[in-house]
Amino acid sequence: MANQQYKLVSCIINGKPVEKMIDVRASLTDMLRDDYRLTSVKKGCEVGECGACNVIINGECFNSCIYLAVWAEGKEILTLEGLAGPNGEISDIQQAFIDEAAVQCGFCSPGFIMSAVEILEAKREFSDDEIRKLMSGHLCRCTGYENIFRAVKKTMLRRLGKNKEADAV
Amino acid sequence: MLVGKKVPRVDAYDKVIGRTKYTDDLCDKSAYIARILHAEIAHGKVTAIHTAEAEKIPGVVKIFTCFDVEEKHYFPTAGHPWSLDPSHQDVADRLILTEHVRFYGDDIAAVVAENEVAAAQALRAIQVEYEEYPFVMDVQEAMKDDAPQLHEEYPHNILKHTTIRKGNYEEAIQEPGLIKVEGWYDTPTVQHCHIENFICTAEMEGDRIKVVSSTQIPHIVRRVIGQALGMDWGKIRVIKPYIGGGFGNKQDVLYEPLCAWLCWKLGGHLVKLDVPREETFVSNRVRHAIRSHIISWVRPDGTFAARKLEAFSDQGAYASHGHSICAKGVGAFPQLYPCDNVEADAYTIFTNKPVGGAMRGYGIPQAMWAVECHTEEIAAKLKMDPIQFRLKNLMPVGYVDPFSKNEMYYDTFRQCMEKGMAAIDYERKYKEYQNQTGDIRRGIGMAVFWYNTAVWPISLESSSCRMVLNQDGSLQVQLGETEIGQGADTAYAQMTADVLGVPLEAVHVVSCQDTDVTPFGTGAYASRQTYTAGFSIRQTALLLKERILKYAQELTRMAPYNLDIVDGKIIRKTDNRELMTLGELSAAALYSLEHSQHLSAESTYQIKSNAYSFGCTFAEVEVDIPMCKVKLLDIVNVHDAGTLINPALAEAQVHGGMSMGIGYGLSERLLFDPKTGRAFNNNLLDYKISTFMDHPRLKALFVENPEPTSAFGTKALGEPPTCSVAPAIRNAVYQASGVFINDAPVTPHNLFRKLKEEGLL
Amino acid sequence: MYDIKALYEAENVPHAIQLLQEHPEAQIIAGGSDVLVQMREGKRAGKELVSIYMIDDLRGVSYEEDGAIRIGSLTSFSHITRDPIIQKHINVLGEAVDMVGGPQIRNIGTIGGNTCNGVTSADSASTLHAWDAIVELTGPNGIRRIPIKDFYIKAGKVDLQPAELQTAIIIPKAAYEGYQGHYIKYAMRNAMDIATTGCSVNVKLSADKKIFEDVRIAYGVAGPVPMRAPSAEAKAKGKAVSSATVKEFAQAVLDDIHPRDSWRAAKDFRQHIAVVLAERALKESIRLAGGEIDG
Question: Alpha-carbon dihedral of residues B147, B149, B152, B154, nearest 10 degrees?
Fold first, then answer.
């Protein structure tokens, strides 16, 4: 323990530049949960299978459990806590998860929502199969994915101005 | 009216912003980390555990082995209500740590360290010596005379054998002209796979132990920790925060006693026991694999003369929920398709495998696999339409079960089946898919299910509720019935608001159960809570309303029977005039200098009724014969769960159950090495739960026949959606390919063997 | 928290080599999706790591002077799939690596890591074998380039010399020009899975699309390492594009592959599937190459 190795990690988390001395053995999940108390980042398997720890790093989704914290150096990281607007208002995709009953136990929801954010940021219309594939890095045992699918597809269509199509999903 | 409306979940907002706190989120970082050392043999005795090397690892606090458990308080783990009758108590066969290893994964020692790395290093550094015994992995092998014995008190490893006898089977099969249909049906060992693994923490407050646990059953956990530690139950405080799914695994007391014991042995220091996924698969609970043998004697007109079922349930190494699972499944057999002459035998057998416990459906998914696979085979043998054959034989309207007094009030099966057929375009597709040839063929199939709500009259059913009025006219509602993701809190809020006459926003359901303050309740299981809590909510809300109106009488001088509460206001019913808001009344009552009163109500309702909950699944598949693959194209579940409290959440529950059923039918199976008893695939990569890409759109439909016995017309819905999915898929595969797969799941491996056997490859 | 004895972060390739020389026991970590998982399992627990993840020079797809396609070893699967050079010349590789795990895994997993771990089930490996890929290794003695089939020594073991790291994978121009191919991953579910068997086929047809000028086929999980099926290739090379050739080709794979029985799948099942995949992947390759077959 005495010669434990630490490293200063500077990055932007949820829009805010931060830096801390981090144990080099830490996963990004450990850093976000323990050092920054961002507890939306969940641990479900710790081997990159369940997707509960998913966060966005420089615009792409990563399972933070199998991502070394030191690699966050210089990166922009977005967790579910960072989605709210300046006045605390929630985003359309979060609202859609509420409206479509896409949340049950809620444990996988943060990871799913972050993948949905990446999909929506592409600003294009994906087919149903493409949506399924883009969301397939997450396991959920409560919802059967059906209402999550609806929430993502509806939000995608609404952002593209296709409100009528969204209502028909 | 809020009951019947699609209101958003009361906890959804916090969950989508990431604010909801689960057990690990609540745990202080000063916690010691506990890890369990699991046995690496299937059966034997631990003769020595060498911990010296492990103890030298920096950060290791202490290592406890099975030899450190001096007081042997055997305890049961099933999340069943306690029984004052010793003969009805669950089998107490567990110890905190065990010297006698009964399965690969049994708990033989625990490491407590300052951090998880030291704990993991210590686990690897411990050396264990065993005396190995022969072991047995198969239920029928385990019943043989020379089989290894797991528990001395249970000869032939039979935990329990129960029988149902109706009419005279032997005589009935003598009837001339009967057609015999016989089959063996197997279901796999599967696991719940809630995304939050089991986790608990323990620390002492004074001479009491506070345990925070990801559990469905906090009050039962309190009792069992007390039993396991030999401690007064009142000295245990169990807190259940939000949990990341349970599905029955957390309807067992898992490692709360161990965590509490470690904390106690360490002078009360905070200890966290966060079970890794690999251990969750093996050392928590699994669904019982059940092998069923069914013989039906059928008349050419499609009626039953006599039927026989033997079911062998794989209990694994310890009793846990034990025989109640197989018994529930076998109990469904004579009811679903009533027949005058029935013999049914249910056996629950110990084997050297992970422990079978409760899992969504509690024996019914296994039973429906056997029964509905068999039903399809009878229809095929008689060349009868499978729908017509079922309608001819299913439980008729007016049927009453003499034991539970459950009654079939409506023509539910016909209604559900008609709705499902219309939704999936069954008749057209069924005709179109007959007699296909070629590599890629389609099929459509269905299955029905039987389920009953709650556990009365086998066990206690009671629910207790407390309502406390705030100064602003809002109220807190507390129940021992737990939110585990299914939406219970939202349903409770809707019910409360309706009975009391307040808006939904005025109802604050206290989601967290704390056994120090929450009224007694046994928790989430048996799809009981909406039904059972409904009674205590209605009763308590009426009691509170009576007290409110009595106080309103003091303030308004109006007779209580001329008063009512509507939308949070006290109104005079005679002219509908609003006299005051509930907030005004509540503040006046609390701060009155003449007669101060804290308006609250608390009551227990004991439920002595029960309700059937029925439905069906329709599935359409495409079978790629050379690839040995089944693609699920369409699936519909139809349920009569009585009146829906919240149709959106009901639909969501059904989706989740269907998904679990799809995995049960097509891909999930925990595999074991026959040479060692070790699980091969105890991780989320190798154990195949369905992903987003393995499902078609899921359709959930309802027939809402109000349940006459229910406080809100509602009945079981949590578990039923899992019950008929797998056999419906299997029956669709049969229509497509002409092969009957009798051992679930219908994997490519399984299909390959069968297609080869039948000459299709 | 991983049981890492020490972590050394390489800033560039020479620095990585230097660190590997200074710490000969250290394990290279690229994206970490294998190394960290193994570390957690205890297999590599307590080891030193040399992280090459931050070396951006090893990312990206480009042309070499002779027209060969160069894929930096740290290029993630998702970046390979989205890359225009890959899409233009060897789209099947992009498709194959788009079947690895799920989206997050494809963002962290690298083609270098996928090949250096030496596993037979790697989704990239069969396609790289089928396209005659060359592996570029950089070490203290400079750069060496070897055919991918020579890179794989045995299950879990590749030809990485001390202090050497894989810096690129190269597809020579002759190996891709005029070829079209298809990969089929056979797995138990449609995402988050490893291949039970994977089959990558590509063809080069004559100008009239009637003759197989070349056919190449490689498998994952048909033996301890990814492998080509030369007997099958010989059955089709120079032959007419016909269903008879396709059948003969597919059956011949059984002369080359030697899958084993395991709890994941039985040998006879894998053999059966290998034949079906060969047939289907070849048919699709023919279609992509503009050919047609009878029946």
Answer: -60
Residue-level pLDDT at C150: 97
Question: Nearest-CA residue of chain B relative to C5?
Answer: B117
CATH (one of 1.10.150.120, 3.30.40.10, 3.20.20.140, 1.20.1340.10) for A92-163: 1.10.150.120
pLDDT in tens, A38-71: 999 999 999 999 999 999 999 999 999 999 999 9
- Report the SS3 class of residue A116: helix
Reported confidence tier of residue C276, pLDDT bands at 50, 70, 90: very high
Q: Tens digit of pLDDT for each residue in C171-187?
A: 999 999 999 999 999 99
In chain C, the percentage of residues whose pLDDT exceeds 90 is 99
Q: Assess contact for C118 and C156: CB atoms under 8 A.
A: yes
Q: Which chains touch A (3 or more CB pairs under 8 A)?
A: B, C
Tokens of A86: 């300046």
Show the tokens assigned to B590: 């609390």
Q: Give residue limits of the domains in chain A.
A: 6-81, 92-163
Point out which residues pair with B316 in neighbouring strands: B350
Give the span between the Cα atoms of B669 and B286, in whole angstroms.
10
CATH code at B286-455+609-757: 3.30.365.10
Check residue C295 and give its pLDDT: 54
Q: What confidence tens digit (pLDDT) does each residue in C107-144 have?
A: 999 999 999 999 999 999 999 999 999 999 999 999 99
C-alpha–C-alpha distance, residues A10 and A75, integer Å: 8
Contact B385, B461 (CB under 8 A): no
Q: Give pLDDT tens digits for B278-333.
A: 999 999 999 999 999 999 999 999 999 999 999 999 999 999 999 999 999 999 99
What element of type H or E holds B263?
A: helix B256-265
- What CATH number should be reported for the domain whose range is A6-81? 3.10.20.30
Round to whole Å and give the CA distance between B434 and B560. 68
* E strand or H helix that includes residue C186: strand C180-186
Strands of the sheet containing B107-113, edge to edge, are B60-65, B107-113, B32-38, B271-274, B199-205, B208-213, B236-240, B513-514
> Residue C189: its chain B contacts at CB < 8 A?
667, 688, 690-691, 693-694
Residue type, B76: P
Query: Which residues of chain C neighbour B124 with C-beta distances below 8 Å?
Result: 42, 45
Task: Label the pairing between strands B286-287 and B356-357.
Answer: parallel
The ipTM estimated for the assembled molecules is: 0.98
Q: Give the best residue of A46, A61, A62, A66 to mutate against chain C (max C CB count within 10 A).
A: A66
Q: What mean pLDDT is predicted for residues B107-125?
A: 98
Mention the CATH class of domain B12-133+198-274.
alpha beta
- Please indicate, yes or no, whether the overall pTM of this predicted structure exceeds 0.95: yes
